[in-house]
Amino acid sequence: MLIKSFYTLFLALLIALFIGLGIDSFYQSPKRPNYPVKSILIDKEEGGLSEEQLILEKKYNEEQDKYMKELKVYNRNVSVTSLVASIIILVFSLTFMAKIKMIADGILLGGVFTTAYGIIRGFMSDNSHFRFLVVAIGLIVALVLGYVKFIRPQKDS
Question: What are phi and psi of 32, to 5 degrees?
């Protein structure tokens, strides 16, 4: 019984990792700008920045602001993608895999972990309306899942 529980948990983690790494592999995140470290840090220690270094620092700050905006959009898109994937996984587990209990439970738990991942990424989007929507979707998924898995009368074959 213990080995079955470990297998179920292991399968769930692999499914969540599969979705997360799949999104990361095929939908690249924006690239963080590089800070012009050497020339600016050395001159700050000596007492001041040259005009060229001030321009470099201003350019870096603008690139950083652009990166942060792109990252918020990226996190929103990753959240939506992972939530859609989790719903597909949950439906698959509750319908097609229902007869193979141990595997179905692992897939189901993987869908739950993927939903949690989607909610976390949704919080990183920095949009309160979107965060509310993501939590609402998570709540609906949890309620439906709980009803279908634990409350609904099971049909005898």
Answer: -70, 135
- Using only C-alpha atoms, the chain has a radius of gyration, in whole angstroms, of 23
Contacts of residue 131, Cβ cutoff 8 Å, sequence gap at least 6 = 122, 123, 125
- Taking a C-beta distance cutoff of 8 angstroms, is the pair 26, 19 a contact? no
Q: Which amino acid is present at 64?
A: Q
Write down the pTM of the prediction.
0.83
Q: Residue 20 contacts by C-beta under 8 Å, 6 or more apart in sequence?
A: 82, 114, 117
CB of 86 closer than 8 Å to CB of 44? no
What ranges do the domains of the chain cover? 2-151
Exposed/middle/buried for residue 7 (C-beta within 10 Å: 0-12, 13-18, 19+): middle
What tens digit of pLDDT does each residue of 4-21 get? 999 999 999 999 999 999
Cβ atoms of residues 141 and 86 within 8 Å:
yes
**Helix, strand or coil, per DSSP, at residue 125:** coil
Kindly report the length of the chain.
Answer: 157
H-assigned helices in 27-155:
37-46, 51-95, 101-123, 128-146
